[in-house]
Structures are given as C-alpha cells and as structure tokens.
Specification:
Layout (H helix, E strand, L loop, with lengths): L6 H18 L4 H7 L2 H16 L3 E9 L4 H20 L3 E9 L4 H13 L5 E4 L3 H14 L3 E3 L10 H4 L3 E3 L5 H14 L3 E7 L7 H13 L3 E8 L8 H12 L6 E6 L2 H13 L8 E4 L1 H4 L7 H5 L5 E5 L6 H17 L10 H19 L7 H10 L1 E4 L2 E6 L2 E2 L6 E7 L2 E9 L3 E3 L2 E4 L2 E4 L33 E6 L9 E3 L8 E3 L1 H13 L7 E6 L3 H9 L5 E7 L2 H4 L2 E3 L4 E13 L14 H22 L4 H4 L4 H16 L10 H30 L3 E3 L4 H6 L4 E3 L5 H7 L8 E3 L6 H7 L4 E5 H10 L4 E3 L4 E11 L3 H16 L1 H9 L4 H5 L15 H29 L11 H14 L11
Helix pairs in contact: 1-3, 4-14, 4-15, 5-6, 8-9, 10-11, 15-16, 17-28, 17-29, 20-22, 20-23, 20-31, 23-31
C-alpha cells in the first residue's frame, strides 16, 4: 500500500511558493495583500485533500512485458486502458501499474518479478509472453506469495501445475485444443506424416507440446516424421543461413505437411521467406500454424504475408459485436497509434484482449474483497473464484486454469494481403460453419457436413488438395518385392539365368505397375528395383511390414489381417474363392428334352389358349359345319372341334370353314401356331447341338462328407482358409504348385476339386473350358492389390492411378492381352446352357388372339340372343319361370337352331 505525501512536506512547499511570490511582487502593495492569503489557502486545501485520501487504497500491479515486440506493445496499451478505465470510476481504490521489460528472457523476467515484489511492493504480477517466462515468474510468486496472471499459452495442460505453482493463474488455455484441431485437419485430408517446426529456446518447453502432437496424430493413424528445431533468433549470427540449413534437411524426408508449433514473429518471417525461396511453399506442400503465428498476421506487412500464401492457421475466436469490445477497440486504436506510430496496424489482437481481461480479472477480484484490507492471499482467493464476461467470453478458473465452455477457434487461410475465415472448431463439436453472438457469448449452432469444402487457397494458389508429400532428394531406389513362386504365371513370372542382373519380370501385374508408373511420372518420378521373393504370400507381406521391402507388386489378395500391418492399394481385380471340378454327362435327361424349349409357364398358357380357341371354334361353327351339327353327342362335337384346331398345329387342316367369325379366329390362331412352332424348333435344335454336361461335384458339403481330396496353392492363404473356415481336414488338402498340374490331378481323380481364387479360375477355364467347370458356390474377398508400408503416401497415389487406368480402358486391354480365352473356348458354349423360351416374347400374340376370339364370340352370342327373343314372341300365357328354366330353354334353342338360316347371314 502506498500513501500520498505527508502534511509537513506540503506545508514547506506552500511556504516556498509564498516566499517567491513576495519577491516578485515586492513593489506593489495593492497586489501583495490578497496574495498574503494564498499560503493559507494552499495549506487548507492540502489538509482537506489529505483527509479524503486517507480512505483511498492503492494496489500496485506489476506487469512484465517485452516492449520490443508487437505482443508486448499490445500488452502495454491494453493494460493501461483497463487500469485507466477502473481508476476513473473507482473512488476508494486505485490501481498503480508498474512495467518491467523482460526482453523475452525467462531469467530477466524472474529478476523483474523479484524487483516488482520487493521494491515496488506489487501485490500481483501480470504478463509474460512465453511459457518459460511464466514458469520462472510463478516460482517467484511462490516465494513472495504473489498471484501471477500469465498471458502465455502453456504447451500442454499441466496436471500438477496447481501443486507446483499454487499462485499461478493462466489466462490462456493450453495448446492442447489447438493441436487437436490441427490433427483433425490432418485426419480429414488423410496426410500420413507431418513435420513439426518450432523455436527451440533451450529450456525443453517444447517437449510436452511435441509429445501431445504425436499422441493426437497416432490416434488418427499419422505421425511426426521429422522435427525442425530452430534456435532463438537473437542467438543466430546468420539467421538466413541457419534457417536454410534446417530446411534443406527436410528435403530428405517424404512429408511436406509442415506444422509450425511456436516461434517468435521475427523468426517466423525468416522461416516462411526462406521456405518460399526454396520452393517449399508450393502445390504439393501444406503449412499449418498455431495461434503464435496466426494472431500476428494483422501486424505484418504485405511482403511477409506474400511469403505465407496458402497457409492455414488457428486463431482464438472472440466476439466483436459487444459494446464493451467496440469501446475497447476505439480506445486501443487511438492510444496504440499515438504511442507506437511506427506500427503499420493499430488493431487489437488476441494478446491485447487477453491482457485487458487480465486486468479486469484483478479488478473484479478486488471488488469482491471490499471492506477488507487487500493482501496477496485474499486477492488470489478472490481471483480463483471470480467469474465474469470478458472480451474473450466467459472467464472463470479451476485450479489456476481457464474453465467453462470449450473455447472456439477460427480456422483461417492466408490469401492476398490478409486472410479469410474458413471454419470454426471446438473440442465439443469439431468443425462447424458459423457462430452466433449473444451478449458476448459464442454459441455453436451446427456442424458442417464437410471441412470448408472448395474454400481453401492452398500454397501455389491451387484449389486441389496438396498431396502433402514428395520424394526425398537423397532417397534410395524403392525395393519392391515380387512373388518368385507363383502357381499362375500369367500374373507374375520371374525368369532367372544365373546372373542376378539379368532376371526378367513379366506378367499382368508387372505390366499394370509399369502403366501406373507412366501415370505417376506426370507428377513425380522415383527409382525402384524389383527383387524376387521365394516364400509364401504371408511371408512376403511381412517383409513389407518389417521394412525389408518398400512395396510388393504381385497378385496379393487383400485380407483383413494383412491390412492391419500394411497398406493396400485400390484392388485392380475382383477376387473370391471358386471351385473347379470335372464335367460329367447328362444323357439321362434327354428323355424329357422335348419339353425344354418352353418353360412350364409358356406350356400352360399355350394349353389354355388352345382350349379357349377350341371352345370358340365349336360355338361359332356348330350351326354351319355339318361335322358339328350332325354329331349325335356334344362330346363328339367337341372332339371334332379339337381335331379341327390341333390339325392346324401341323398345318394339315383341310376342313372347310363356314363362319366368317371362325375365319378371323383361326387366322390369328394359325399365326400364333406358326410363330410357336418355328421358335420351338429353333430352340430344340440348339439344345440338341450342345453337349449335355454337368459338374461331377454339387457342393462343398459333399466333398467333406465323403472325405474327398482337394487341391490348392499352398503358398497362398487358401490353405489356411480351407482348414480354419471351411473345415477341411489337413490330410485331405493337396498342395498344387503349378497351374499345369491341376488338369492331370483332376482327370486321374487324385483330387476331386480344385480351390482357386476367381482370377486364377478365370485363367484356368479359359484354357480348359471343355473338360472342367466351376460350381456356383464361391466366397468373396476384397480383390488383388499392390502392397506398401503402413502410412506410405505412395499407396494413395497408386490407387488413384489404377482408377484412372480403369476409366481409360487400360485394365480392359491388359485383361485381353493376358487372359484371352483359347480358340476352342471362344467357339464353345459349354459353360452356358440354352435358356428355354418364356411368355415374355409371346404375350402380345396371346393377348391379340384372346381379344379377337372374345369379340367374335360376343358378337355371335348377341345375335343368337336377339333371334332367340324373336322366336319366342308367340302369344302365350305368361308364367313365371326360374333362371335355370330360361337357361335350359336357351341351350335347347342353341342346339336346335340352324345358324345357317338367313337370319344368321353374314356370320
């Protein structure tokens, strides 16, 4: 506590003033008399002021800043504004702010803290740009029991911070959330490796930050491939040369995703300028910065920003629409411009806002200890329990760290002379599109479906997402393993002549890989060399996992257990497990072959249509045709009509037709008969020319029940699949090492079936289609693909190249080159039976016949009914008759009437 000057000092000063005035006005008594009262008035006024000031308390606050940096300047102006605002409205409590320069040196900051505590009797210390400064000043706070409000951002959340530094209060959240948001960006774009860039100040403060970044990346399947540690700028005699030397080392790494964790602003300027000159800020590179760089973009000139084009940054979000912020903005802009005219930009950033909130935290805490003597102890307790709305949002503390709702961050993109906002992020919601502001509070209102799609201007001013990797300049040729012992040589064939330098590699897989390389050469090139591997496929995949090989080019099946350790490309062909068995004859089925040209449904419909036509013809011809009229029994008449119609099927119908209606019906029927007989003959002929063959084996169950021997490639996964999944006994499985051994083993009965993957089955049947076939029972797998090490960026590029080749028809051309069927199989239809004809091709003819027959019959029936009524108009005594009697009488009339009489003329 500091008191105002004592009363005796004021009295002496008043007497001296009075003596001077007398000497100046010695010659004028008219002026001297009034002035004789001046000392008395001064003395009286001073005593009154001392009486009032005796009730005012002054709290001394120490502020440790670096006035040489932009951040320190913002701290100073913002704190002065906050103190002045408080002192202007407070009558009984005043803040006295004392600044100390740290020069960004932790030891200098600690020394300044001791001086503020001892000589200036500071009751709280605010400031510090770096966490190293804050940690040492916190130790001073422990020694002098002073609250220390740190404006620095901790590298990571410190679990034991409250125990180590009980007087430390952190105004900024740790880098944990920022690193989490960066890892979310890396995950979204599937970058497998990153390079961490940071300023190594020698205090090991970055260790926890790097460990936390590695932890987040491991959770998403990525990793920190390399670390670029830059020494502090003031320790470098040649900053350009040092930064250049460190960046040159990056060229020997694959990753081109740079994450700038923490550097000073001047060092960041050198970093991005040299990176741009080296071509490391181009179409294949990605740069992401934390708030330490992103928040000072407003203060940098256009020359610096021009070297940061396309950079993505993370900034703390704060609402800018509140009245308090608007007042602060105007005051800051005015005072900063007046005090630091050399600065290009006078707008406040997050560091100024955070410094303002730090002073406001002390002010709010002081109001809670009113009517008490302010001490460091009760001030600390009041600070830790305070809760208010500041410029950065809701402010409260728990164990010395910010608490409350998750902080919202803004994702920015450097474009042109400034930057644009892309999205927002919080640990609770992830990325989202907008933030609503209400009373200074930020509200998360919705998650976006995609991460700022199409909005990013990447380095090189491109819209396409960068690969994020490049071939190392000093990289050795990729060592690519090739299966040397394959059962089907059309996929991979290795030929050696005793000279390792003259080994030749050929096959479908090799040609496909060469085509992939042509696609990749449009973007980059890399050296590679093949090496044959004579082992099982699982062992070959393990060689990629243990980094004996960089990749595998061959017919490797994509399996779940293999994908856990290696990276597969897009499958270039489908796969599954098929069963090859010999043919056997189906001669026993020839007895019923005559029924096969038509389906049972077509037979039934044809029979139904035949019956309807017979009835129609009988009804229409009964009165005209003597063959129908003279028959003594109705069944004989029906048989005569049936013979009349059936004879038309064989085109031998010679009976005379009397009714015009019948002629129409029969013409349509004859057309249907013509079409059906021709179709039947053609289909039956096709069936007779196809050998009647069928598989000897029906299914897998029969093989297991009868303990039949089966064959497969023992070097592939099929052996284990047969035993572990399908349940075959090991003794019943034979290892077949070559495709040329299968026919002889199957024909001799050494094996009853061969289990082949679908690509191999296709090759086998294209050559032996007349002797063997497959069972319509198979087990699906993902397909065949190339193999790369886990996280290799080449896997994604090769997959993309395979898709491009597929779209251009290159895969189809390779299929025709390597898997074209033999001449015999091209002309053979063994593998496809002739399909019977169904109603689908004849429904219109049947419909037409049915409609015409119905119309003719109805017209005939109407005329018959009309004549029946006319014939029964004779006057008789009307008697009620039942419907049954009427029908019987009408039927007798139908049987007796002669439709050939004039009344039916034209029929």
């Amino acid at each position: 506590m500091e008191q105002y000057p004592s009363s005796w000092l004021t009295t002496i000063m008043g007497a001296q003033v009075f003596h001077c005035i007398l000497r100046k006005l010695r010659g004028s008594l008219s002026y001297a008399l009034p002035l004789l009262c001046l000392p008395l008035l001064l003395l009286a006024g001073t005593r009154t002021a001392l009486a009032d000031d005796a009730t005012i308390q002054t709290v001394s606050i120490g502020a440790i800043i670096d006035e040489s940096t932009r951040i320190g300047k913002e701290h100073k102006v913002a704190m002065n504004i906050a103190v002045a605002k408080f002192n202007s409205v407070s009558n009984d409590l005043k803040l006295l702010l004392r600044f100390a320069n740290s020069s960004r040196d932790p030891f200098q900051s600690a020394s300044s803290a001791v001086e503020l505590a001892k000589e200036n009797e500071a009751q709280a210390i605010i400031g510090m740009e770096t966490w190293q400064e804050a940690a040492l000043v916190a130790q001073v706070g422990n020694l002098y029991r002073l609250p220390v409000l740190s404006l620095a951002t901790a590298p990571a959340t410190q679990p034991s911070a409250q125990e180590r530094w009980p007087y430390l209060v952190q105004m900024a959240r740790s880098y944990s959330d920022q690193l989490s948001s960066i890892s979310a960006i890396v995950r979204y774009y599937h970058w497998p490796k990153v390079i961490a860039v940071y300023e190594d100040d020698g205090y090991a403060g970055m260790t926890s930050m790097l460990n936390l970044l590695s932890q987040y990346l491991q959770q998403i399947g990525s990793e920190v491939e390399y670390r670029v540690a830059l020494p502090p700028l003031d320790s470098m005699a040649d900053p350009k040369g040092v930064v250049l030397d460190q960046l040159v080392k990056v060229l020997s790494r694959e990753s081109r995703v740079f994450i700038v964790l923490q550097t000073s602003a001047p060092l960041a300027v050198h970093l991005f300028r040299e990176a741009k000159n080296m071509g490391l800020i181009g179409r294949d590179e990605v740069w992401i910065t934390t708030e330490s760089i992103s928040s000072i973009l407003d203060s940098e000139n256009s020359t610096v920003i021009s070297s940061m084009q396309g950079v993505i940054g993370i900034k703390t979000y704060y609402p800018e629409t509140s009245k308090e912020f608007q007042n602060f903005y105007y005051s800051f802009w005015t005072e900063f411009r007046a005090e630091f005219p050399e600065e290009l930009n006078s707008q406040p950033g997050i560091y100024a806002i955070r410094a303002y909130d730090a002073i406001k935290t002390v002010v709010t805490a002081l109001k809670q200890v009113t009517n008490k003597t302010v001490s460091s102890e009760n001030l600390l307790q009041s600070i830790q329990s305070t809760k208010f709305s500041g410029l950065t949002g809701e402010i409260s503390f728990e164990e010395g760290e910010p608490s409350g709702d998750a902080r919202v961050y803004t994702v920015i993109n450097v474009v042109g002379k400034s930057y644009k906002e892309l999205s927002f992020w919080s640990s609770q919601l992830g990325f989202f599109e907008s933030v609503a502001e209400n009373g200074g509070r930020s509200a998360n209102i919705g998650i976006s479906a995609a991460l700022f799609p199409g909005l990013v201007n990447w380095p090189g001013d491109v819209k396409d997402v960068p690969r994020g990797w490049g071939m190392p300049t000093n990289a050795k040729p990729l060592k690519i393993g090739v299966p040397g012992r394959t059962s089907f040589e059309k996929f991979v064939k290795v030929e050696t002549t005793g000279d390792p330098n003259r080994t030749t590699y050929s096959g479908y897989c090799i040609d496909l890989f060469l085509e992939v390389m042509k696609v990749l050469e449009e973007s980059y090139t890399f050296a590679y060399e093949f090496e044959a591997f004579y082992g099982t496929y699982d062992e070959l995949v393990d060689c990629v996992y243990n980094k004996t090989f960089d990749a595998v080019v061959g017919d490797v099946t994509i399996l779940a257990n293999r994908s856990e350790h290696v990276e597969f490309t897009q499958p270039y062909t489908k796969s599954g497990l098929g069963i090859i068995v010999p043919f056997k004859s189906k001669e026993y089925r020839k007895a019923w072959l005559f029924t096969k040209p038509f389906t049972w449904r077509l037979w039934l419909i044809s029979a139904g249509m035949l019956f309807c036509t017979i009835i129609t013809v009988w009804a229409l011809e009964k009165g005209f045709n003597p063959g129908f009229r003279d028959s003594p029994k109705d069944q004989n008449q029906i048989l005569a009509a049936m013979w009349f119609i059936l004879s038309s099927i064989f085109l031998t119908q010679k009976e005379k037709i009397h009714s015009n209606y019948t002629r129409v019906v029969v013409i349509v029927w004859l057309f249907i008969v013509f079409v059906l007989t021709q179709s039947y003959t053609a289909n039956l002929t096709s069936m007779l020319t196809v050998p009647l063959l069928e598989p000897k084996i029906k299914d897998i169950a029969w093989l297991k029940e009868n303990n039949k021997q089966v064959g497969c490639d023992g070097d592939s996964f099929v052996w284990d699949y047969l035993t572990n999944v399908l349940g075959f006994e090991t003794a019943n499985i034979m290892n077949v090492s070559s495709q040329f051994n299968y026919p002889d083993l199957l024909n001799k009965g050494n094996i009853s079936a061969a289990f082949l993957e679908l690509p191999y089955e296709r090759v086998f049947l294209n050559q032996y289609c007349n002797s063997f076939t497959h069972i319509n029972q198979f087990y699906r797998f993902e397909g065949l693909g190339f193999v790369f090490q886990k996280g290799s960026p080449l896997a994604a590029d090769v997959s993309k190249a395979i898709l491009q080749l597929s779209e251009k028809g290159v895969l189809t051309a390779l299929d025709q080159k390597w898997f074209a069927p033999s001449t015999e199989c091209l002309s053979s239809s063994t593998n496809s039976d002739v399909e019977p004809l169904d109603i689908g091709g004849f429904w219109f003819l049947y419909l037409l016949s049915g409609v015409i027959s119905t119309i003719c019959f109805l017209v005939f029936l109407i005329r018959l009914i009309k004549n029946y009524k006319e014939a029964n108009r004779t006057p008789t005594i009307r008697m009620k008759k039942s419907i049954k009697d009427k029908l019987i009488r009408f039927w007798k009339y139908f049987e007796e009437v002669d439709t050939a009489q004039p009344d039916f003329a034209g029929c």
